[in-house]
């Protein structure tokens, strides 16, 4: 098993037995775990978010659903970009955008809310 293609070939051939079958199950369940890990903080924080921002139950549902939709769109666009420009280059560019957004947050503490909003838009 040296690549994702090897796993795909093994699954498609139907010959996965023993250790290989267990590895495939672990990989599949690992993806489910990461999805749950990504969304579980919202489940614990939603009551406080709803209270702080005065959200109705409909708006709280909209916030929750938008996170899943954002994850889906991010995965689709990210996968396309990785195929187009490469994993390393995309990661480097995203790190630069993120660092720029975070740097603007540091400066925003002294410069006011307008710069903070620009930093948030940059980080997204």
TrEMBL record:
<dbReference type="Pfam" id="PF07690">
    <property type="entry name" value="MFS_1"/>
</dbReference>
<feature type="domain" description="Major facilitator superfamily (MFS) profile">
    <location>
        <begin position="24"/>
        <end position="124"/>
    </location>
</feature>
<keyword id="KW-0812">Transmembrane</keyword>
<feature type="transmembrane region" description="Helical">
    <location>
        <begin position="59"/>
        <end position="82"/>
    </location>
</feature>
<dbReference type="InterPro" id="IPR036259">
    <property type="entry name" value="MFS_trans_sf"/>
</dbReference>
<keyword id="KW-1133">Transmembrane helix</keyword>
<keyword id="KW-0472">Membrane</keyword>
<dbReference type="InterPro" id="IPR020846">
    <property type="entry name" value="MFS_dom"/>
</dbReference>
<protein>
    <submittedName>
        <fullName>MFS transporter</fullName>
    </submittedName>
</protein>
<dbReference type="InterPro" id="IPR011701">
    <property type="entry name" value="MFS"/>
</dbReference>
<feature type="transmembrane region" description="Helical">
    <location>
        <begin position="21"/>
        <end position="39"/>
    </location>
</feature>
